[in-house]
């Protein structure tokens, strides 16, 4: 197993000299008084290694580094449940580096298991500009410098981890599922539980997607025919990739019957933002002062989804919320084979041409969206980002990390109890281009 990456979330606010002034005359807020202050605390510097209550070592929360005044109820809580010992993200290489423009923040929060997984693949597709709309926009030179596309994937699992608990907990967990339901969108009925021995043969749907979906998509894109244009090629590749990922679960060899996962994928080039989405994880774009949804949640209260389910002979029942067959709170997911054909894995694909006004992109699981609207999250992130830029207390290499942690902490403060995963991609950071290496020409005689 690869070395566990450095923890990007935290549980403390006591880093020395970690509060910067929000205005020229704003006082420094002592750590012990931050809980009662009317300020946004933004996380930044990692504090020394600490131990969780169960004895596992982990990097504690990023400490506060900037204060954004003027918002109600905004303070980062001092106690944030640390994530699982295995960080749920996959990346090529180390660090937070798309020309220092992206960062990941995750928290297990008040759950007993971490079912969110994240995958980032730099240089995902190395093609010419024709693969992404011939770089027709934005009209700037840098669009032609990096035709490679980056892959960002976020997968929020449900119905998997508790199924892998020892069988002697079946009664306890089953009663809780039946009475309270799975807040993460899973079954409200008792599930079948496996012993640890039999559970070893199974894999969470979200984990599988994080490990394999990017490879499947790359293969499908390379094999797809683009006779109908580059958009058709990408759409066909994404649809087929999701179908293949879902097919891996149909025979029951990879996952439990009730395990499933959302899947939101962003393919980012210099001129295009290509998004595939299945479930209720979400991607939103900040363009100037505008919030642009890149996905639409697949929920049973969507008129088109309700019609599709009823036409297939299914039902949407209201318990604590609308649920397919009274069980699942989303209408599309990878896995969930016991709810076929009503729950499908077909993604919705969108294409957004990049603009000079694009500021950043947020991808997150519903642990964030359950307590913040897209507009609230974008406004909050924009405020924190611009304040940090004005204060000039950190470089661009840390800006994305700070904002990602700020969003995560904000969601927890607002009462989220679910797993939370946030990917923050800064789209307006100046690029530091490397000059191409050229071999010295041989002397001519």
Automatic annotation (TrEMBL):
InterPro entries: PP2C, PP2C_BS, PPM-type-like_dom_sf, PPM-type_phosphatase-like_dom. Residues 1-35, 163-198 are annotated as: Disordered. Residues 101-427 form the PPM-type phosphatase domain. Signal peptide: none annotated. Its EC number is 3.1.3.16. GO terms for molecular function: metal ion binding; protein serine/threonine phosphatase activity. Keywords: Hydrolase, Magnesium, Manganese, Metal-binding, Protein phosphatase. It holds the Pfam family PP2C. Residues 167-179 have a biased composition (Basic and acidic residues). Its cofactor is Mn(2+); Mg(2+). The keyword Manganese applies. The keyword Oxidoreductase does not apply. CDD domains: PP2Cc. Gene3D superfamilies: PPM-type phosphatase domain (3.60.40.10). Belongs to the PP2C family. This is protein-serine/threonine phosphatase. It comes from Eucalyptus globulus (Tasmanian blue gum).
């Amino acid at each position: 197993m690869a070395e566990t990456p450095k923890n990007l979330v935290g549980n403390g606010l006591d880093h020395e000299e970690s509060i910067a002034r929000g205005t020229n005359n704003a006082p420094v807020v002592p750590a012990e008084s931050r809980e009662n202050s009317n300020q946004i605390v933004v996380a930044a510097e990692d504090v020394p290694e600490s131990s969780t209550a169960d004895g596992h070592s982990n990097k504690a929360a990023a400490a506060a580094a900037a204060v954004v005044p003027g918002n109600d109820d905004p303070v980062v809580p001092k106690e944030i449940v640390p994530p699982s010992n295995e960080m749920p993200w996959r990346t090529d290489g180390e660090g937070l580096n798309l020309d220092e423009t992206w960062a990941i923040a995750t928290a297990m929060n008040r759950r007993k298991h971490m079912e969110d997984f994240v995958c980032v693949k730099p240089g995902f597709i190395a093609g010419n500009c024709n693969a992404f709309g011939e770089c027709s926009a934005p009209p700037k030179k840098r669009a032609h410098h990096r035709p490679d596309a980056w892959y960002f994937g976020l997968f929020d699992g449900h119905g998997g981890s508790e199924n892998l608990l020892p069988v002697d907990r079946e009664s306890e967990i089953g009663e809780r599922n039946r009475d309270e339901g799975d807040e993460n969108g899973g079954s409200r009925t008792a599930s079948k539980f496996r012993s640890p021995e039999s559970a070893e043969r199974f894999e969470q749907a979200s984990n599988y997607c994080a490990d394999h979906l990017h490879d499947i998509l790359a293969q499908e894109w390379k094999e797809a025919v683009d006779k109908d244009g580059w958009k058709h090629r990408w759409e066909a590749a994404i649809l087929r990739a999701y179908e293949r990922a879902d097919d891996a679960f149909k025979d029951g060899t990879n996952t439990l019957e009730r395990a499933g996962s959302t899947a939101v994928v962003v393919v980012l080039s210099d001129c295009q933002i290509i998004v595939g989405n299945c479930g209720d994880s979400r991607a939103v774009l900040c363009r100037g002062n505008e919030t642009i949804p890149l996905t639409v949640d697949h929920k049973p209260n969507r008129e088109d989804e309700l019609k599709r389910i009823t036409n297939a002979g299914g039902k949407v029942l209201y318990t604590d919320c609308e649920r397919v067959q009274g069980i699942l709170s989303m209408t599309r997911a990878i896995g969930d084979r016991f709810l076929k054909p009503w729950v499908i894995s077909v993604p919705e694909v969108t294409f957004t041409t990049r603009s000079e006004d694009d500021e950043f992109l947020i991808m997150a699981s519903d642990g964030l969206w359950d307590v913040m609207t897209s507009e609230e999250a974008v406004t909050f992130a924009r405020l924190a980002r611009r304040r940090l830029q004005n204060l000039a207390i950190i470089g661009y290499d840390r800006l994305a990390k700070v904002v990602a942690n700020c969003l995560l902490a904000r969601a927890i403060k607002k009462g989220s109890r679910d797993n939370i995963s946030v990917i923050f991609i800064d789209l307006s950071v100046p690029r530091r281009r490397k000059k191409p290496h050229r071999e010295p020409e041989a002397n001519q005689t």
